[in-house]
């Protein structure tokens, strides 16, 4: 009898455990389903917030573009009015109107200065109680303004150069005589400007070679940058090549003669290097070296 009661009690305990386990599983399933519903419901809300933020960003961008368009239109109108020598009628006397006026004048002045330099003009300052003129000659290469040089000319007859900061290897006095400065000051300044810009361009090219082509060694260069000797390396053979460049015309930035050697053998006329020789004569030095490197001619 005791055994039968114990067995019955054990069966009941097992059934109760199973029911508890089933209820626990049901509870977990319910919680998981609820969590999924919350996640699904949260997604549209998150997407809505993202879209709202994007709309606000686009609105700000639109407002900024509208403001830029308004400023540019007002500047264009002001510049046209000033060029036509008409009376300026401002809508108001606010700080914005004054700022627009200053911006328009500044832009107009920059355009005038650019046109002045493009037409070969020179900045002139009267000095020594109007007895002499100081001319400023700016140099530039590939759109970049480089050094500016100054020369002062006495106006008393005969004209003479008082002082200047032009490099000593530029033949200032010889150019003044060749161009007959006494009768043609502008011709003298033009010739001097050509020499200065040719020197500045050659100097800038050499600087770019040193910055961009670490594998190219500059063995020789003079102050005028009219004679250069470079050393290349052929990629496959690892052979050193010497390249000599002569700039006989000091007003130009391209060499008049190029010679490429390998172990004292002239390669300039060979089929392989004739094209590169012509490239060096027709293309700025740093760009020619870049083309040769890309085609595998040099390291």
TrEMBL record:
<dbReference type="GO" id="GO:0031511">
    <property type="term" value="C:Mis6-Sim4 complex"/>
</dbReference>
<keyword id="KW-0137">Centromere</keyword>
<protein>
    <recommendedName>
        <fullName>Centromere protein O</fullName>
    </recommendedName>
</protein>
<dbReference type="InterPro" id="IPR018464">
    <property type="entry name" value="CENP-O"/>
</dbReference>
<keyword id="KW-0175">Coiled coil</keyword>
<keyword id="KW-0539">Nucleus</keyword>
<comment type="similarity">
    <text>Belongs to the CENP-O/MCM21 family.</text>
</comment>
<feature type="coiled-coil region">
    <location>
        <begin position="48"/>
        <end position="75"/>
    </location>
</feature>
<keyword id="KW-0158">Chromosome</keyword>
<dbReference type="GO" id="GO:0005634">
    <property type="term" value="C:nucleus"/>
</dbReference>
């Amino acid at each position: 009898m005791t055994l039968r009661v114990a067995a019955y009690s054990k069966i009941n305990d097992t059934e109760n455990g199973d029911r508890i386990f089933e209820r626990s599983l049901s509870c977990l399933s319910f919680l998981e389903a609820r969590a999924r519903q919350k996640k699904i419901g949260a997604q549209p809300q998150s997407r809505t917030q993202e879209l709202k933020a994007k709309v606000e960003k686009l609105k700000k961008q639109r407002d900024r573009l509208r403001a830029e368009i308004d400023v540019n239109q007002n500047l264009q109108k002001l510049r046209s009015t000033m060029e036509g020598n008409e009376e300026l009628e401002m809508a108001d006397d606010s700080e914005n109107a004054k700022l627009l006026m200053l911006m328009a004048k500044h832009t107009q002045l920059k355009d005038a200065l650019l046109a002045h330099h493009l037409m070969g003009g020179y900045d002139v300052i009267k000095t020594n109680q109007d007895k002499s003129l100081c001319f400023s000659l700016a140099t530039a290469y590939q759109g970049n303004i480089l050094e500016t040089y100054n020369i002062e000319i006495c106006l008393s007859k005969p004209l003479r150069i008082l002082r200047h900061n032009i490099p000593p290897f530029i033949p200032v006095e010889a150019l003044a005589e060749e161009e007959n400065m006494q009768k043609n000051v502008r011709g003298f300044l033009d010739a001097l400007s050509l020499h200065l810009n040719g020197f500045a361009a050659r100097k800038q090219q050499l600087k770019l070679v040193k910055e961009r082509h670490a594998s190219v060694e500059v063995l020789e260069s003079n102050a005028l940058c009219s004679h250069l000797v470079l050393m290349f390396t052929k990629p496959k053979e690892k052979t050193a090549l010497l390249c000599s460049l002569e700039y006989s015309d000091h007003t130009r930035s391209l060499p008049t003669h190029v010679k490429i050697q390998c172990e004292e053998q002239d390669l300039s006329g060979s089929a392989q290097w004739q094209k590169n020789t012509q490239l060096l004569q027709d293309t700025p030095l740093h760009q020619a070296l870049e083309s040769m490197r890309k085609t595998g001619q040099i390291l």
